[in-house]
Each structure stands twice: as structure tokens, then as C-alpha cells.
Amino acid sequence: MTEPIRRSSLLETFGLTFLAIAALFAADTFLAKTERAETLVEAAHLFAQGRALMQRGENAKAIDRIKDAIANARGNRDYRRTLAEAELAAGRTADAESTLTDLLQSDSTDGRASLIMGRVMVKEARYEEAVSYFHRAIDGRWREDAAGNRLQVRFELIDLLAKRNSKEELLAELLPLEEQAPGDLKTRTRIGRLLLLAGSPTRAADVFREILHDAPDNAEAHAGLGEAEFARGNYRAAQRDSETALRLAPDDQASRQRLELCDELLTLDPTIRGLGPGERFQRSLKLVELALVDVSQCVSSNPSQELRELFGRAATALKAPVSAIRQSEVAESHVDLAEQLWQVRKKECGSPPATDRPLALVLTRLSQ
User: Fold this and answer.
1) Fewest CB within a 10 Å sphere: which of 12, 190, 229, 318?
2) Which ranges of 90-126 would DSSP assign to H, the alpha helix?
3) Do 195 and 211 contact (CB within 8 A), yes or no?
4) Contact, 243 vs 256, CB < 8 A?
């Protein structure tokens, strides 16, 4: 009887020991979870303080708070991305780059981290690298509103390219944006303006016409279309659209200046349709006169033989009588002479011609 009793006693002891160990493990786990939860709560509190400091522009203090938050929640990527933003805002671009490099090494598809790195590169004037990171942000992963964030990044990239006057790259980014962007008037108008900056007035004109189809009295669209037509050399259409823009927005100084310039151009250009031989001849003569004056004012005291010969031809043309029957023929010769003077001016004058003057615009258009 003693042996069974002893075995039963041992089993009870083992059972009680196991229960005690299990209870201690559960207690330790509970305490660890509680401590971890408290740590995460503290991290969130510190992070919120850091964000508040950033909003007040106190970025140096914000960095310390966010670093404390990261110490309590090392795996939180959002905290580390925000730390990089604070470092960038504080002018600590090297620190921001280091923070972001670590993030991107562990996940190269992080869209937000790539965007912030692009901004760091812009701050450091490393523009080619900035463009690369913006593209990575566009192609990267976003936790929320991926389409909206990618669109915002593309616009940020486009603004950078516009400031850099990178027309070919700008146009390449704008083409897909035409289909991806929302259809509100503000965004479509912005795209039209950017197409003008990219040197694509024909596409810009199409965008502004679409806007006017939906909103015929949109002053910005009329102004944009006027600018696009002007860039294409369609001065009559530019005049008309600029007049409409001014009627809808009388304080639009850009449209007013463009309208005045169109008025001058349309009274100077000898190739305008509907002109009679006499008017065409007089305009061609005026072109020669203006070109001669312009070149004479900028050329050195010792012009080339070519230019002296052109001066002689221009002086003769301005004085020579021309019968009505020969006016059309001579007008063509005058236009050619004015173009030759303008081309030589580019070679022999120290300063380039002002490209926004009526004479320059007409002669540039005629030479194309």
C-alpha cells in the first residue's frame, strides 16, 4: 500500500509544480504584455508631442521627441519616416539621408520614404537623384490612398522639372498625367499651363478647349488658350481669346499685354491673309526699316562685308520707287531682305535680340 500512496503523492507534487510554473509563466507574459503596451502608449505619446513640435516649426526639439518614441517602438517605420521629415525641416539633410537609407535598405518599395528622400536630394541640389527617387515613390507601395499619393508625387516631380526648365522630361511626365489626373477644372487648367511650360502649345490648346466646352465663361481657360495660340503663331486667334479673357477678368494684365502685342503684330506681319498688294508692300517695307534700325543700333563700328552689303540693299529698298504692278514681287524681296538682316544680327551683335518684341516675333515666324 505504501508504494501506490507514494506514487500518488509524487504525481500531485508534479501537478502542483506544473500549475505553479504555468501560473508564473502566464503572469510573466501578462506583465510583459502590459509593460509592452505601456511602452507603446508612451511611444505614441512622445511621437504626438514630436508632431506637435513640427507643426510649430520647432523641428530640433521634435527630433529628440521622435527619437525617444523610436527607442520605445523600434519597429515603427512611420516614426522613422517622420524623423527624416523633421531632420529635413531642421536642415539636417545628412541625418535625414541616413535615416531614409536605413528604411529603404529594409524595404526599397516604401513610397513615402522614397518621396522624402527625393525632397532631401532637391534640398542638396542633387536633381538627377531626386528625379529617380520621385519615380520610385510613384512606383512604390503606399499604405493608404495609393492613387492619390502617387498623383501628388507626380505633380511634385512636375513642379521640380518646370522650375528646372527641363522641357522634355516635363512633357514626358505630363502625358500620362492627362489621363490619370482628376477632371476638375482647377487640375485641368494646371495641366494646360504646365503643357505650355513644356513647350507643347498644341496639346495645351486642346486642354483649354476641352475646359471651355464644359465652362464657356472660364476666364483662365480663355487666357490659357490665348497664350497657346500666341505660342503657335496664330495671332488672330490669340487676339480673340485674349479679348475674351479680359472681358471676363479685366484685371488680367498678362492677357492685356498679349492683346496689345497681338494688335502690333497683326499690323506688321505682311503674310496675314486678306491683305491687298499695296498693304502687303507697305508692311514689308516697314519690316526692312525696323530691321535696319535694330541692327544699326547694336552692331559694332566695324561691321562685316556681308552686313555692309545688306545695309546698302536696305537703304536702296527704302528709297526706290515701286510701281503698283510690281508691289507683290518686291514685297517678297523685302521680306527676304529683312530676314537676312535679322540672321546677320544674331551673329554680329553682342546682345541677343529681345524675343518678345513684334519685330522679333514676326521675323522668327517668317523664318520657320
Assistant:
1) 12
2) 93-106, 111-123
3) no
4) no
Between residues 111 and 361, the one the model is more confident about: 111
Grid coordinates belonging to 227: 497664350
Q: Which residue has the cell 490659357?
A: 224
Q: If we measure between CA atoms, which residue out of 120, 124, 125, 123 comes closest to residue 137? A: 120
Res. 6: pLDDT tops 70: no
Instruction: List every span in the chain annotated with CATH 1.25.40.10.
Output: 183-268
Q: What does the pLDDT look like over 139-177, one tens digit per residue?
A: 999 998 998 999 999 999 999 999 999 999 999 999 888
Confidence tier at 349 by pLDDT (50, 70, 90):
confident
- Reduced to 3 states, what is the DSSP secondary structure of residue 260? helix
DSSP 199-231: T-HHHHHHHHHHHHHH-TT-HHHHHHHHHHHHH
- CA distance readout (Å), 218 to 196, 201, 241, 244: 18, 19, 11, 10
DSSP 338: H
Q: Which three cell numbers stand for residue 118?
A: 527625393
- Residue 31 reports pLDDT greater than 50: no
Bridge partners (DSSP) of residue 141 are 110
- Note the pLDDT tens digit of each residue in 269-310: 898 888 899 999 999 999 999 988 888 888 777 788 888 888
Distance CA 46, CA 68 (A): 7
Q: The C-alpha cell of 243 is what?
A: 479679348
Architecture, CATH, for domain 183-268: Alpha Horseshoe (1.25)
Q: What are the φ and ψ backbone dihedral angles of 270, each rounded to 5 degrees? A: -80, -5
Q: Which residue would you say has higher pLDDT here, 143 or 352?
A: 143
Those residues whose C-beta lies under 8 Å from the C-beta of residue 342, and which sit 6 or more positions away, are: 291, 295, 353, 360, 363, 367
Is pLDDT of 32 > 50? no
pLDDT at residue 14 is higher than 90: no
Q: Are 222 and 214 in contact (CB under 8 A)?
A: no
Q: Answer for the pair 295, 287: CB distance below 8 angstroms, yes or no.
A: no
Instruction: Name the one residue in this structure whose C-alpha cell is 513640435.
Output: 53
Q: Taking Cα atoms as reference points, which of 84, 160, 82 lies closest to residue 122?
A: 160
